[in-house]
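User: Reviewer 2 asked us to show a designed sequence for the structure in our supplementary figure. I'm pasting the structure tokens here. Could you produce the per-position amino acids so we can include them in the response letter?
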């Protein structure tokens, strides 16, 4: 492949110059992330270690799902003593429920007795062991401002998280488990508790009211106030938000919606590159043909409306075979407001065969007519050489003349 590299800007676009004002939230902390992203789009007291109430159960559910593969497995409720402020489904010691129904009770009505049952059984009869598993998972996920002392989220010393960590955990939960993702999006569900059935309702009252919201978890205690971790999908992408320390359910919902609406108004989805998209032709050495170059993988991102997006490609000036189809021959850099956010490979669409030596000679000497002349001259020279070297035959009885 020829060495010289050419760089060309392919696309430049900029959004509106004016940004949407950041929301004025009545919270002790809040955070907004693009789902699956590592950094917040917007945050207020994002790393503050705050009481989180029943959003603790985001980790409780995750640890259970990591350790129980059969959700139809039946657990028996251990010794359970309710405390003031508990939300519960009325479990009594010795009562039996499937893990599936316990998780539904944990996530929708936020039942503390379901949390205790799950922790007791997954922890092999020890709630303390289960809480240790919760903290180990928090460390594994890099939740540096999170610590647990209870599986339910009741106000206890040392049980806290941060707005940023809550969003990271909710994002992980929804990507880790389809069951979790489906359950938190339910407005209500039917479960079996012991020998009777009951309907439980989701405490997230945004569900069904705001069509693009789909969970994730509420919480409320005197210390934490009203807490909500929400996820919503609009315009082709998903945002996850947390609001902590609001004064009422109505304020909790209003603050969460304000934060999500801000994100969807300030950011938009870009799809500048699609796998297989033609992105140029390269001349082939010693040939009049060109090889098509295509994008190796698709790329999408969510960027601020005010961002300037630029694509720059780097390709050789020409190619020479043999090269297999799919060979990487260059790349495209995606820049958002001057920062490289992705490097996407460019590949050959079809195989490029080797060029014969005769074709190379012809191209070097100026074309096919010159090649014909050279071939004829070489042939004539070969014939002449053979004739000169052919031995002379003298007939018998003749003598050589000198």
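Assistant: Here is a per-position design you can include in the supplement:
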């Amino acid at each position: 492949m020829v060495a010289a590299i050419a760089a060309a800007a392919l696309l430049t676009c900029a959004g509106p110059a004016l940004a949407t004002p950041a929301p004025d939230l009545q919270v002790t902390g809040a955070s907004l992330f693009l789902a699956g992203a590592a950094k917040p789009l917007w945050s207020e007291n994002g790393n503050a270690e705050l009481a989180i109430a029943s959003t603790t159960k985001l980790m409780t559910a995750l640890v259970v799902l990591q350790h129980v593969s059969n959700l139809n497995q039946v657990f028996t409720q251990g010794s359970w003593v309710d405390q003031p402020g508990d939300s519960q489904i009325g479990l009594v010691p010795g009562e039996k429920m499937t893990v599936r129904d316990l998780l539904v009770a944990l996530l929708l009505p936020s039942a503390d007795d379901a949390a205790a049952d799950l922790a007791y059984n997954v922890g092999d009869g020890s709630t303390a062991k289960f809480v240790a598993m919760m903290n180990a998972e928090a460390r594994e996920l890099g939740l540096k401002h999170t610590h647990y002392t209870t599986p339910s989220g009741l106000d206890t010393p040392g049980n806290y998280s941060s707005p940023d960590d809550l969003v990271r955990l909710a994002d992980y939960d929804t990507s880790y488990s389809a069951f979790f993702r489906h359950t938190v999006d339910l407005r209500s569900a039917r479960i079996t508790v012991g020998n009777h059935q009951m309907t439980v309702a989701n405490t997230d009252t945004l569900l069904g009211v705001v069509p693009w919201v789909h969970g994730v978890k509420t919480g409320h205690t005197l210390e934490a106030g009203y807490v909500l971790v929400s996820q919503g999908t609009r315009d082709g992408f998903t945002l996850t938000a947390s609001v902590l320390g609001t004064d009422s359910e109505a304020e909790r919902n209003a603050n969460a919606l304000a934060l999500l609406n801000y994100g969807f108004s300030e950011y938009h989805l870009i799809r500048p590159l699609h796998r297989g998209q033609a992105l140029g032709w390269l001349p082939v050495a010693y040939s009049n043909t060109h090889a098509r170059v295509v994008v190796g993988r698709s790329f999408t991102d969510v960027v601020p409306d005010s961002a300037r997006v630029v694509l720059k490609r780097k390709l050789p000036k020409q190619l020479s075979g043999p090269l297999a189809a799919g060979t990487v021959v260059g790349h495209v850099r995606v820049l958002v407001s001057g920062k490289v956010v992705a490097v996407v490979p460019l590949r050959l669409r079809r195989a490029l065969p080797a060029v014969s030596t005769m074709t190379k000679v012809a191209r070097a000497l100026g074309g096919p007519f010159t090649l014909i002349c050279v071939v004829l001259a070489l042939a004539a020279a070969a014939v002449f050489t053979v004739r000169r070297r052919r031995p002379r035959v003298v007939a018998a009885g003749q003598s050589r003349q000198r």
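For the response letter, you might also mention the following. Residues 357-384 form one domain. The first helix runs from residue 57 to 67.
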